Amino acid sequence: MKQLSSGEIRQMFLEFFKEKGHTIVPSASLVPHDDPTLLWINSGVATMKKYFDGSVVPDNPRMTSSQKSIRTNDIENVGRTARHQTLFEMLGNFSVGDYFKAEVIPWALELLTSPDWFGWDKNKLYMTYYPEDKATKELWEKAGVAPDHLIPVEDNFWDIGQGPSGPDSEIFYDRGEKYDYLAPDDPENYPGGENERYLEVWNIVFSQFNHTAEGTYEPLPRKNIDTGMGLERVVSVFQDAPTNFETDLFMPLIEKTQSFSDHKKYGDNADDDVAFKVIADHIRAITFAIGDGALPSNEGRGYVIRRLLRRATVNGHQLGIDGAFLYKLVPVVGEIMKSHYPKVLEQSEYIQKIVKSEEDRFNATLNDGIALLNEVIADTKQAGKTEISGKAAFKLYDTYGFPLELTEEYASDRGLKVDAEAFDAEMEDQRNRARNARSKKGSMKVQRDLLIEIKTPSEYVGYTDLTVDDAELNDIIFDEKLVKSVDKSNGEAELIFDKTPFYAEMGGQVADTGNIYNPNGDLVATVEDVQHAPNGQNLHTVKVLGELKQGAHYKLVVDRQFHAGVERNHTATHLLDQALRNVLGGHTEQAGSLVKPDYLRFDFTHFGSVTKEDLKKVEDLVNKKIFEAIPVETVVTDKETGKKMGAIALFDDKYGDQVRVVKAGDFSVEFCGGDHVKNTSQLGLFKITSETGVGAGIRRIEAVTAKPAFDYLNDEERLLNKVTQTVKAANNAATPARVKEMLKQIKDLESKQESLETKLANQEASDMFNHPETINGVSIVTGKLKSGNMNQLRELADTWRDKKYSNILVLGTGTDGKANLLVAVDEANVKAGIKAGDIVKAISSNIQGGGGGRPNLAQAGGKNPAGIDDALQAAKEWLNNK
Fold first, then answer.
1. Residue 818's domain is classified under what CATH number?
2. Which of 496, 645, 663, 738 is least enclosed by beta carbons within 10 angstroms?
3. pLDDT score recorded for residue 442
4. Which of 394, 412, 437 is the last residue in one of the domains?
5. Please, are residues 276 and 257 in contact by the beta-carbon 8 Å criterion?
6. For the chain, what is the largest distance between any 2 Cα atoms, rounded to a whole number of angstroms?
7. Rounded distance, CA 227 to CA 45, Å?
8. Which residues are in the Alanyl-transfer RNA synthetases family profile domain (predicted)?
9. 508 and 626 housed in the same domain
10. Domain count, the chain
11. Do the domain assignments include residue 842?
């Protein structure tokens, strides 16, 4: 077996297919772009869907990649099995309507067995195939695979619902008897079974059917190849590692983690080994996810990052590591992956900052989680039970990051078990909620073969001309058919011209609108939308108002006012993008945009909120560049030259041999195929109208330019004039001082009112405190305040506790449709098992509310003040039944 590093193996795979005429496609961001069906990029083919469904025709139908991916559907298995990872790399080669089985099967065997490449022993390879796919079996045999190494398996059919599907063939490597932990007659002891001896290393999908919406399987117009080889698995074969973790992809992380622990060593204890593996796996996923623009939060991708980080932190505690340590592993990830992902090391400082901040925040709550666990254990024992509920265990897992096994370990030390079955049910409920929350859109479209067939050339001339007097109508599509003509009776049609001034929607810029005229000057169609056809032509969706004929010539006229507004706002997004980088830092990246004629929307990555001061700096900087009247020029060049010019590439957009670089002086330089003004002064004015958070680490700015900006400021001035009149200020300039003066007056009045209410509450409480009742040997004071709030109830509870008026206090107050209850219990009775939280839970239904708190103090809120008397009586009854 050759001695190869993970980097060498990755590069060898890519170089092999490059020699077979494939284009090496860079690994796309883990954050999907323009795909609402995915939370993360979760496979190599996920980035190829647009080619397989025919919505885009690739420059080269042969492609290969090493795509980083994230899957967290079985996170509980990470570290417990040999091969589960949350972040993994999928090596793949893809054919879009080019080669098929006859080519890919011998290539696969060549890569795996040729001494020039992997050099594996052919006798150690086994292949499974779909039983009905006789052609695949014959091709493997023809390539030189022995018949007894070919195994039919019914599950070998790749199908994700509507869209391309087909049989597949999986390749297994026999790792030898030392990895055979099953009995010879075990039904799983075969290539394709659940065992460690025969390791699946490659899956080749023969995508040859369209799974239609009706549930039928129709032959694809163009057959595709989609393969997936897990890098981590292949590296474990080359490096003869028992699991994926004992390889150069993980061991440096495990060894670094060992250095943080005083006495725990990898390999000494099975439970500790799981913790080491979890940490190594999770920090890889966290590092790459943050590097690709996702940030910790309580929803979506951000929740996944937060959950991974908390699991890793808890496992660090299990290894005796106190305080933040994960952030120190980020540079180690960068060093391991630098040959293919140099960006990780470049971003290391930024990623470390975010990870440490999140670690510090979680470590501050971890003790609360342990305290809650101890309370759950105490409550379980006090109730005479021997098992912690699955609901309580899931709360510890979901809120504090406690894995089930950690809760089980704590519980076991105290002689308790955990209801794992109920925990699993809670987990499944959460998964169902997550699945239901995802987009219902189809994961992959059915191929629209008609558009793929249309290859007539079409030129966009809108950069210089918004009117074309003599455009030839090359293609007319109606009802998914090519037709010779359409008229008003057809209603809507799609048109492709030999040249057009209409911009097709792309890069956030909306499509142009306008009119189509015949040579007589008659209006024959209005353009309602323009999109790119698979072969790159501008596809016009039009409302047909007159006759249109293939081969005829027409005048195309873009709505100039609409287009001018779009141009201004598109240039504004470029200035805004650079201003954000200058003010907030280079970590900010565009996460989406919408450029319309009347406003712009710009999404960007940023950890935390944007201060008003920073937002003003951004707005001022954009306006400064507008007032400087900077020429905006476009340079058409090659991609490498564009990069040397400092051009920013957005997302993982595919750029061709020739690219357009849009420059606003030296301030902003970006790759961009959109339309722009000639000079920044044409924007007139830039005004931010809102700044909000829209997702995990994603902020959104909405803004206006030119006349809409002027109108916005006028509206703001009119509003200020109304406020000036209302507060009776001398003029607008005096309004802030007048408002401040009025707020002080209001605050003074509120303070006096609260003081009077507190005095009244104390007078009412004085009589209550002096008349306690005794129930079951415990003294209790109950009372209802005519006017008050929760703060006053707490102050009265402090007085009650200091003066020791009784063992239990239950107070209520309610006004304006709101009710409040407070329960306090002295320490002696807390130790005796009487808890304020239990009492408040038992009585709060009377006020149509709920609550909780500590054993010695709890409170509840509700919307039924009329039920306060019943709640007080219920407290007495609860004590009487205790």
1. 3.10.310.40
2. 645
3. 41
4. 437
5. yes
6. 103
7. 8
8. 4-715
9. no
10. 5
11. yes
- Work out the mean pLDDT of the chain and round it to a whole number: 89
3-state SS assignment for residue 187: coil
Strand 553-558 vs strand 590-595: parallel, antiparallel, or unpaired?
A: unpaired
Strand ranges for 98-158 from DSSP E: 125-129, 150-152, 157-158
Residues 649 and 792 occupy one common structural domain: no
The pLDDT of residue 441 is 38
For residues 256, 257, 263 and 266, what is the CA-based torsion angle, rounded to 10 degrees?
A: -90
The type of residue at 601 is R
Look-up: residue for tokens 């807390």? 830
Residue type, 41: I
pLDDT at 199: 93
Residue 503: give its domain's CATH number.
Answer: 2.40.30.130
pLDDT at 401 (0 to 100):
66
- Residue 217 is predicted with a pLDDT of 86
Residue 16 sits in the same domain as residue 125? yes
DSSP string, 369-411: HHHHHHHHHHHHHHTT-SEE-HHHHHHHHHHH---HHHHHHHH
- pLDDT tens per residue across span 42-90: 888 888 888 887 788 888 999 999 999 999 877 778 878 888 899 999 9
Q: Is residue 255 part of a domain?
A: no
- Confidence at residue 650, expressed as pLDDT on a 0 to 100 scale: 63
**pLDDT at residue 409 in the model:** 67
Q: Domain ends where: 558, 592, 624? A: 558
Residue 673 located in a structural domain: yes
CATH number of the CATH domain containing 601: 3.30.980.10
Q: What is the pLDDT of residue 206?
A: 95
* Axis-axis angle for helices 560-584, 612-627 (nearest 10): 130
794 exposure class (CB count in 10 Å sphere: 0-12, 13-18, 19+): middle
Provide the token pair at 489. 């009776």
Q: Are strands 387-388 and 417-418 parallel, antiparallel or unpaired?
A: parallel
> Is 444 inside any structural domain?
no
Enter the tokens of residue 114: 């040729």
User: What pLDDT was estimated at residue 439?
Assistant: 41
The pLDDT assigned to 715 comes to 93
Contact 860, 820 (CB under 8 A): yes
End-to-end alpha carbon distance in the chain: 74
Same domain, 228 and 80: yes
The model's pTM: 0.67
Inter-residue long-range contacts of 314-317, CB under 8 Å, 24+ positions, other chains counted = 314/366, 314/400, 314/401, 314/402, 314/403, 314/406, 315/274, 315/275, 315/276, 315/278, 315/279, 315/403, 316/257, 316/260, 316/275, 316/279, 317/366
Token pair recorded at residue 657: 């041999």
Same domain, 141 and 230: yes
Question: Please, what sign has the CA dihedral across residues 420, 426, 429, 433?
Answer: negative
The helix/strand/coil state of 692 is strand
Q: What is the mean pLDDT of each run of 10 residues along the chain (882 residues)?
A: 93 97 93 79 86 84 95 80 90 94 97 96 96 95 95 89 85 92 87 88 92 80 91 96 95 96 88 93 95 82 87 88 94 95 91 91 76 83 88 82 71 84 85 54 52 88 95 93 93 95 93 96 96 91 96 97 97 96 88 92 87 96 97 91 81 65 94 94 96 79 96 93 91 92 91 78 78 93 85 89 94 89 95 93 92 90 93 95 84
| 63 and 177 share one domain | yes
Annotated binding site for Zn(2+): 570, 574, 672, 676
Give per-residue pLDDT as tens, 209-250: 888 767 788 888 788 999 999 999 999 999 999 999 999 999
- Residue 249 and residue 42: Cα distance in Å, rounded? 19
Provide CB contacts within 8 A for 91, sequence distance 6+.
Answer: 10, 13, 14, 44, 64, 65, 66, 228, 229, 230, 231, 234
CATH code, 173: 3.30.930.10
Same domain, 91 and 197: yes
Pairing of strands 125-129, 163-174: antiparallel
Q: Which domain holds residue 819?
A: 767-880
Q: What is the per-residue DSSP string for 448-507?
A: -HHHHH-----EE-TTT-SEEEEEEEEEEEETTEEESEE-GGG-EEEEEESEE-PPPPBT
